[in-house]
Amino acid sequence: MTETAIQVDGVKKHYGALEVLRGVSFSVPAGSFSAIIGKSGSGKSTLLGVVSGLEKADAGRVVVQGHDLSSLDEAGMADLRRRAIGFVFQGFNLIPSLSALENTLLPTFFDKATPVAARHRRAVGLLAQVGLGDRMHHRPSELSGGEQQRVAMARALVNEPSILLADEPTGNLDVETGAAILELLLDMSRAHATTLVVVTHDPDIAAKADTIIEMKDGRIQHDVA
Amino acid sequence: MSILRYAWRELAFRRSRSLIAILSSAVAVLAAVLLTALAASYARAVRAPIETVGADVIVQINGDIPPKLEGLVFPHPNALVPTAAVAAIRAMEGVISLTRAVYMWELAPDHYQSILGIDDSEAGLGSLASRLIDGKALRAGDQAVLLDSDFAAKQNLKTGASIGVGGTKFPVLGIVDAARGGKVVRADVYMPLAPAQVLSAAAPMVQALYPFGRDDANLLLVKVDRQHLEGVVDKVAMLLGKKGIVSSELSFREALSGVLFLSQRMGLIVAAVIGAFAAAFVFRATASAIQERRRELAVLQAIGWSWRHIRQQVLLENAMLAIAGVALGILLAVAIAGLLGHISVTLDLPWDLSSTPHFIPEATLNRTQTVTVPIGIPWQAAAIAAGGSLFVGLAAAVLLLTSAPQPWSLLHSE
């Protein structure tokens, strides 16, 4: 029996009078690659926010790695994200004052179980895997968009999460760089055996997914395996 | 990589904002420390003249001018202090000790000298012993004198010589340097109280005015518990009436009321206003920094930092800014205090204990005293200012980061 990484049941979300999610339910098997697609305003990005616990659902239930998010307080949610979830954003979201290596190390600050040297080795290794072994001491402003997204991927994987959430990871990149980043994301995800959920409007990305969840007006239009 | 290093990177990255926050704290600390230092220096200046006579309160009574200015006379402000008044003052609450003295001038056509006969106490013979530069200290039962070093040099008198006072010869037991740091009333000739009382009781120009006996005094040096100073001064003034002269640091406070008001009250107000502005700056700088970093803080939440961790980080950054501001403020205060060095205040002495009779032309020189007081750093005030600055910095971070926001709106793509 395949293990479920993410289980979403009847999730609703309002922003004032606007109903963004209208009872969404789906599940993501562990180790799979799911793509959430849909037009702008369809609710796909909000759905990712709810799954990550960074946005609270108004109704319904979200279970991540066996943890019901509604039962976790803020600190518990942070702990779950630190241990189990890695993020890659469209806007890279690196800390501008820190170098690539320091950005990669940020999620490990409160990992008391792993020695500092081991965390450092892991971050350096990940940066080397994404091809930035020689640019790890550069700040984001000294890196190209593609390079920044590679740093973001290294940062997302540094705590060895079981789930990787990516929100339009190629949206701010040119086609060629975007394709390269996507390939890298898939490779890294496979190499680290993570469950990958990507929000995208790009059909080429969706075509590579094991499951496509198509959103329209806050509902799942199609759930194609 | 640690949270300390991250904090340092953030502060260095937002250099202008960090500098403004540091300067705000520094200016507040500088103002508080420097104004307190000046106020403390003026307060010390006010106490200095009275401390040089080794007492907190000097008690005298205005008297009359003798029929002839010859032989031993009491200076005009040194009339007989009644025995009952001495006993009443000694019994007042807050009086620690009372030293009786007899202060006289000896006038002759070709010379004059001032004589002080004084009790054997801390403010009397005891303080003279500590200023001895030659010879032996005086004891209560001695029929001998000590000479002031300036007077001895002028008269070419040395230890072992003798000097006539009121027609009696006294051996010179030693020389004292009362001018420099001496906590003693200045006089040319010092002797124990008893022989001075005997001389006064036998002096025609004293007896012409007062029934001065062998156990009387015309000058009292009173040590008072500082908490009771105002009360004692008021009670003594009331006891002695209009002719009483009660001198203490309070006498100078009136003369220096303008400066003291500026340095103490206004100093406090100015420091408070600057402190309030600095606090507002720190709050504003923290609020702007948090606003500017909303997305960054959201990222930290996304990668698994709890709100408590985030608040700790901002607290650490603000603490570092406050510590830097405090250090800079104290350094500047030390530097400015060092550059200024000291304050000088010229005070009119409210009592007449001049070793030179006032009708001698050079006597006017002795009626004022210039007090020079170094400007020291009041470390207690500095510690309070430092604590306040740190508190403001930490309070700003705590108050502005009360609860965790839902950060997804700052991070998502749509």
Describe the secondary-structure layout:
The complex is a heterodimer of chains A (225) and B (414).
Chain A: E1 4-15, E2 18-29, E3 33-38, H1 44-52, E4 59-64, E5 67-68, H2 74-84, E6 85-88, H3 100-105, H4 116-129, H5 145-157, E7 163-167, H6 175-191, E8 195-199, H7 203-207, E9 211-216, E10 219-224
Parallel strand pairs in A: 3-8, 3-9, 6-7, 7-8
Antiparallel strand pairs in A: 1-2, 1-4, 4-5, 9-10
Helix pairs in contact in A: 4-5, 5-6
Chain B: H1 3-13, H2 15-52, E1 57-61, E2 71-73, H3 83-90, E3 95-107, E4 112-118, H4 125-130, E5 132-135, E6 145-148, H5 149-155, E7 162-165, E8 168-176, E9 189-192, H6 193-202, H7 204-207, E10 219-224, H8 229-240, E11 244-247, H9 249-255, H10 257-292, H11 294-302, H12 307-340, E12 342-348, E13 368-374, H13 379-400, H14 408-411
Helix pairs in contact in B: 1-12, 2-9, 2-10, 2-12, 2-13, 10-11, 10-13, 12-13
Report on the structure:
The complex is a heterodimer of chains A (225) and B (414). Chain A contains 7 helices and 10 strands. With 225 residues, chain A is an alpha/beta fold. Chain A has a single domain, classed as P-loop containing nucleotide triphosphate hydrolases (Rossmann fold), CATH 3.40.50.300. In chain A, helix 6 links the parallel strand 7 and strand 8. The longest helix of chain A has 17 residues. The mean pLDDT of chain A is 90. With 414 residues, chain B is α+β, with helices and mostly antiparallel strands. The mean pLDDT of chain B is 84. Chain B folds into 2 domains: 202 residues, no CATH class; 191 residues, no CATH class. In chain B, the strands form 2 sheets. In chain B, strands 1, 2, 3, 4, 5, 6, 7, 8, 9, 10 and 11 form an 11-stranded mixed sheet that branches. A two-stranded antiparallel sheet of chain B has the order 12-13. The two termini of chain B are 33 Å apart. The interface between A and B is large, with 43 and 33 residues.
